[in-house]
Amino acid sequence: MLGKFFQKPAQEEKERVPPGQYLTKGFPVLTYGATPQVNTDEWEFRVWGLVTPKSFTWSDFMALPQHEFTADFHCVTRWSKLDVKWTGIKVTDFMKQIEVDPKAVHVMEHCYGGYTTNISMEDFLKEENFFAFKLFGEPLPPEHGGPMRLVVPHLYAWKSAKWINGLEFLQHEEMGFWERNGYHHRGEPWAEERYSNF
């Protein structure tokens, strides 16, 4: 497999590639379960928990400031893709649209298809995080999480939830799907936080 689909980073790329990772020549698709097919006319995004409950349509999201992003992408299964180009909406811009209780310290990401993953508010609110709806200038395909996914570049990709449709704000940490099945509760690539110590 190494050489055909993956390669070791070149000397000038090594400082951008976390330990134990190889560079992919494509953009692998890894999904547990069926791939949801969601029309933007039907898409809905909700917030609940320690927040004033609110729902957003696709048009509501598209009315928010849009930006181009270039970010490296690191999967826990040991591949990385550098300079992925996305179009999306900053998490920090979205957060201006909702009222969160100060007691909220964690977020559960909810998705079409039932997938969940947890993230601390500290990690979630980083300036570089965004909701992506385009990949390399084209509408985000379903296999990569379209119509919309969260992208959290500083954590392993399972935290960048595909098909995202809601955020639950919590006063304590709860585990999402992969975290309940042996993955690390945080997932920081440079520390190789792949699997739980519990």
UniProtKB/TrEMBL annotation:
Annotated coiled-coil segments of the chain: none
Oxidoreductase molybdopterin-binding domain location: 33-178
Name of the protein: Sulfite oxidase-like oxidoreductase
InterPro entries documented for this protein: OxRdtase_Mopterin-bd_dom, OxRdtase_Mopterin-bd_sf
Pfam families from the UniProt entry: Oxidored_molyb
Source organism superkingdom: Bacteria
Gene3D superfamilies referenced in this protein's UniProt entry, alphabetically: Oxidoreductase, molybdopterin-binding domain
